[in-house]
User: Which sequence fits this backbone?
């Protein structure tokens, strides 16, 4: 396979997109986990399906349509939630289903032979185009810059928004920015694991990292490494056995999480018995 | 000249009245304790002073030169957040305008170190917030508020869910701090508070003056 990577462009794209995906997953996934925005992210991902359908209908790059829908959905959910006090849970459910419905409607209205949507729903890392890759690079740079350059503020905002507010920090802007970043992240991940599987890749690496470290920055970095490992391994396995890449990546990630839990238990037990020995001495 | 002055302040949430015709004057270095039942508007009053909500009518005057340090209820945030004590307290040193690639300076860390030493929590500096006891967490939050270098300290239920010994420790700390800063404390725990504060007021929508504990009362009522 290593030879094939050098030979085929599509494999190079796949490898690069796996790495780009894991970078944003690690960073934004950690934020999503700490802010309990998992379902929100799922909602944003599914709403973007409407944009992808619109892309086909208007004959523009579908992923750009998805990007527009994702950003609008994330901001709308927050705004409506603030203005009307409707539970964000309810709004997420509405956007989730309406987005999917619009996608299906747009596809049905698109003239000609209907496009295959499975690569958007379940991801197909082997079909990432050069244009798609370029978009991923741009989004990755934006996300990385915004999070890294304001890291101390993000930390304060995520830990205690109220106190940050009292300090005079405009937390409202941080909040909206966070939702835009989540939308961008979802778009980066769509081609890799697909709309339906996005939330797994956003949650499993940080959840695994949090088993071992308790520092925001470290969780992010370890999540990136773990995400990269899961994605690349998933890519290799799916290529070798000719099975769906998105599903393979998710299942490998879940296996990784349960293995990590077992390892943690072993470490804890070893630690306990070591302490036990000391006290008995 | 008062540090804080509220004149005929009313606060309504939609049509529900949270605070009614509040008149309050707090002078420099005063230690004011406000007690009252849950839902009596204590938190609303603090938020009003902090500028987080606007009064529906009336005037809130705060001396311009005064920085306020805020100690929230410990139940207000996610205790499992992956952050260590030092980083929590450093939050108080953050500037309100966002600076790209902000880093806490050596001076920030030194100042925070001194505050921690004063409160006797220096050895907690690398501990996770989730591992702290109620009393320790309260001291960390007081340290964070002090890191702002405030002239006035606002505390919301600082003795909720902590043991008697920690309560006494916290009030001893506040008593010392009161030599330099004005303190407004909101609680439903009247027992221990009454022997430390200058003035007590009772809040249940309206503010009632209970009298001065040590000095002349400055809480005026309609």
Assistant:
């Amino acid at each position: 396979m290593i030879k094939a990577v050098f030979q085929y462009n599509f494999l190079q794209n796949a490898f690069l997109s796996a790495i780009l995906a894991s970078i944003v997953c690690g960073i934004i996934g950690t934020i999503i986990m700490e802010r309990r925005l998992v379902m929100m992210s799922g909602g944003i991902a599914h709403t973007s399906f409407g944009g992808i359908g619109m892309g086909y209908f208007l004959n523009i790059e579908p992923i750009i349509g998805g990007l527009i829908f994702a950003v609008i959905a994330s901001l709308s959910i927050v705004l409506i939630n603030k203005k009307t006090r409707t539970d964000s849970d309810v709004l997420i459910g509405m956007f989730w289903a309406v987005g999917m419905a619009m996608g299906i409607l747009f596809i049905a209205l698109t003239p000609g032979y209907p496009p295959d949507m499975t690569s958007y729903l379940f991801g197909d890392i082997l079909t990432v185009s050069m244009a798609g890759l370029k978009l991923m690079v741009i989004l990755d740079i934006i996300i990385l810059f915004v999070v890294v350059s304001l890291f101390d503020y993000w930390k304060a905002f995520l830990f205690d928004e109220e106190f940050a507010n009292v300090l005079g920090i405009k937390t409202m802007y941080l909040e909206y920015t966070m939702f835009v970043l989540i939308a961008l992240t979802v778009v980066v991940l769509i081609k890799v694991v697909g709309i339906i599987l996005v939330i797994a890749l956003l949650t499993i690496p940080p959840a695994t990292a949090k088993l071992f470290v308790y520092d925001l920055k470290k969780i992010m970095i370890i999540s990136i490494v773990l995400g990269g490992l899961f994605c690349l391994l998933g890519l290799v396995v799916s290529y070798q056995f000719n099975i769906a890449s998105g599903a393979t990546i998710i299942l490998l990630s879940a296996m990784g999480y349960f293995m990590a839990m077992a390892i943690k238990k072993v470490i804890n037990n070893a630690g306990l018995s070591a302490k036990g020995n000391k006290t008995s001495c | 000249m008062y540090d804080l002055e509220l004149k005929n302040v009313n606060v309504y949430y939609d049509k529900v009245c949270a605070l009614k015709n509040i008149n309050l004057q707090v002078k420099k270095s005063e230690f004011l304790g406000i007690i009252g039942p849950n839902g009596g508007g204590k938190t609303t009053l603090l938020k009003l002073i902090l500028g987080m909500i606007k009064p529906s009518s009336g005037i809130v005057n705060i001396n311009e030169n005064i920085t306020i340090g805020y100690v929230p209820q410990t139940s207000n945030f996610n205790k499992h957040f992956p952050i260590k004590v030092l980083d929590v307290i450093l939050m108080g040193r953050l500037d309100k305008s966002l600076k790209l690639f902000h880093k806490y300076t050596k001076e920030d860390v030194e100042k925070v170190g001194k505050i921690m030493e004063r409160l006797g929590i220096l050895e907690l500096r690398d501990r996770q917030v989730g591992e702290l006891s109620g009393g320790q967490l309260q001291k960390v939050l007081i340290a964070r508020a002090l890191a702002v270098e405030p002239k006035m300290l606002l505390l919301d239920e600082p003795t909720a869910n902590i043991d008697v010994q920690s309560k006494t420790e916290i009030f001893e700390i506040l008593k010392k701090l009161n030599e330099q800063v004005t303190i407004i404390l909101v609680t439903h725990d009247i027992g221990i508070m009454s022997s430390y504060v200058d003035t007590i007021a009772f809040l249940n929508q309206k503010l009632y003056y209970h009298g001065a504990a040590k000095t002349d009362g400055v809480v005026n009522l309609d």
Q: What stands out?
A: Residues 214-222 of chain B have pLDDT under 50 and may be disordered. The radius of gyration of chain B is 17 Å. Chain B touches chain A at residues 50, 52, 68, 70, 72, 76-78, 81-84, 87-88, 91-92, 94, 96, 98, 100-104, 128, 130, 144, 148 (CB under 8 Å). Strands of chain B lie at 4-13, 16-26, 31-35, 57-62, 68-71, 152-156, 182-187, 199-204, 206-212.
